[in-house]
Write a structure and sequence with these properties.
The complex is a heterodimer of chains A (474) and B (202). Chain A has helices spanning 31-49, 85-103, 106-111, 113-130, 133-141, 146-171, 177-185, 192-212, 214-220, 222-225, 227-230, 242-245, 264-268, 288-299, 312-315, 325-346, 464-467, 469-473; strands spanning 54-55, 58-59, 61-64, 69-72, 75-78, 237-240, 307-310, 351-357, 364-366, 369-380, 386-393, 399-400, 406-409, 414-415, 418-424, 432-440, 447-454. By secondary structure, chain A is of the alpha+beta class. Chain A folds into 2 domains: 1-348, no CATH class; 351-462, Immunoglobulin-like, CATH 2.60.40. The chains are: A alpha+beta (474), B mainly alpha (202). One iron/sulfur cluster binds at residues 238, 268-271, 273, 275, 283-289 of chain A.
Amino acid sequence: MNRAQPNLASVTTINADGSRRFLHPADVQGRFTVLRRITALALLTGYVALPWIPVNGHPAVFLDVAQRRFHLFGLTLATQDLWLAFFLITGLGFSLFYITSFFGRVWCGWTCPYTVFLEHVYRRVERWIDGDAPARRKLEDAPWSATKISKRVLKHGFFLLISAIIAHVFSSYFVSLRQLYAWMHGPPSEHLFAFGVILSLTGSLYFAFSWFREQFCIILCPYGRLQSALTDDNTVNIGYDKTRGEPRGKAGTTDAGDCINCVRCVQVCPTGIDIRNGLQLECIGCAACVDACDTVMQKIGRKPGLVRYDSLNGLNGGPTRFIRGRTIGYSVMALIGLVVFAFSARSVKPMNVTATRMKGAPYFMADGSIRNQFNVQVINKNNAPARFLMELHDAPAVHFNLGTTAIEVPAMGQASPLAVLTLPQLDFHGPTTVTLVVREDKPGGAAIERKLEILGPDTRLQNHDYLSPDHYKK
Amino acid sequence: MNTPRSNDSEPVLREHVFDGIQEYDQKLPNWWLFTFYITIAWFVIHWLAYYQFNVGQTDEKRVDDAMAAIENNRLRQFESLDDKKLWEMSRDPKIVEAGRASFMMQGRCVTCHGEDLMAKKTHPENLTLVGQALADKEWQYGGNPSDVLKIVRKGSPDVTKGMPPWEPMLGPRGCVEVAAFIMSHHKEGEPFTISAPPAPAK
Ligand code: SF4
Ligand code: SF4
């Protein structure tokens, strides 16, 4: 098997013939490894717990597809508010870019669910069953035997089990826990679709984490592919201090640099690169190589930090500038985005109101009054029935033709009352605008305004002077 | 065709050079290549199934079928309805109650025809009730249940009057219920007169 050293020109995990080279990253200890474990544990707890923590009577995060209600930390959004997802999606994307401009791919190495599951769940299981890196490599190369088969069966059994658990956790963000529980206890024939979703999710997760692994980060993930555009010479990444390390030599050699060419940094890398070749697209910024090299440096009595978090400027002995054109620009954009989002989120109302002129003639005349008919549609986004009141403003002469203007709307339902507006013909002096206000019938309730245009006959036609031929002789 | 690497670590360069640019001889990952093969196989399956053997429906056909089913269902609801059936329904308390609920809902029929279904007739002073009286023995467009149902569904034939078609809003079922409610104020076989259409609005 080809165990060539990583190089810049090709991807380590792909052999010359296109086949996959499976990596066996070595164990690593150090401060970043500990911190990363703690972060991962917190994140894993969060992933599982979020659908269980109630906020304002709903789970903290619950994208209820069946009811089409989206609960986010106490904020409940209806399908009609889906436009706010624009802020969510661009906001998440932008935050990622923002952080990247300062610290490169910290997201990938520390918080991306893919890394968290791969490094802190699946690889831990693999380490536990198959042993450390040399043992795993030996097992891979070994011919099939009873031990190998039993180890493989055990490992993949666990992988499948974990994948199924993650698939269920993922589903709990989209269906209620009660429903999920009922599905888990019922025969699959009663919920074939849900069963299929869980099955394919489990399959995808199993494939991704047992076989595909770093290939996703290296080749598929679009965020990783954007790195060269998102970072610059002042971005803090994982880097190797060439000035200090080169030329490489054995420990104790006087005219050599600090790197003793022990390739510990290469052995621990989960993407199979040699960080000493400089920043590469494969690097997910996991800092495993930092801990590895620091341990080596400590052992041979040299200063740690030969491989460290630093910018390209910093690695070349210069200062790292955090405040610079790119970060200032990003900050301003982030601020604008936040302000616009705050205003937009405030505009979310518990109901939706539309008012359109009814089909047919634009206005009607009878008994000395002009009548305009509007179709009002009130959608109640709440989970409880609600009562709304219609009011007219800005045109005192315009009235509803009936006194009662209360509308009862069932929970998450809609009502489409008519607004029949009348106006004495004598008070009509050309098209005017009236404001229809629909408000919740409770103190401090929300209100939505809609402008309606009251139409009538051309007032000039009612002027007999205007119609008389004499008018035109003047 | 497995080109050996030059030193087991660096990939070999292809021979051709253009503008000083050279090319490494590297292979696509096999799994990547495999996704291409899958799409090719999928194309063949798809082409055979959809375009040659008509297995599975196109989205267009599915939508058309669903629309046709809805339309069929709608027609069927009215097909079996004649005056006799409608009279029967107007005696069914459940249907009449449902019709009353629709009729009396704020902003619906009651807006123009009044709670007593008499519109202006009993409230000559209330100019804002603009509808026709529905509980008297005088009809303008026919007094049979099917005539009434037609007006509820399609609106007044006289567009200057403002009675809109209600079928889009109430649905076929709702229209039948409202008509049944109106007819519950009448008796089968009672005499009625057809009034002359009122003078056009000035
Ligand atoms: S080079 Fe270092 S930081 Fe980058 S992926 Fe490899 S071990 Fe992690
Ligand atoms: S771990 Fe440090 S000393 Fe060892 S090869 Fe890597 S950079 Fe050099």
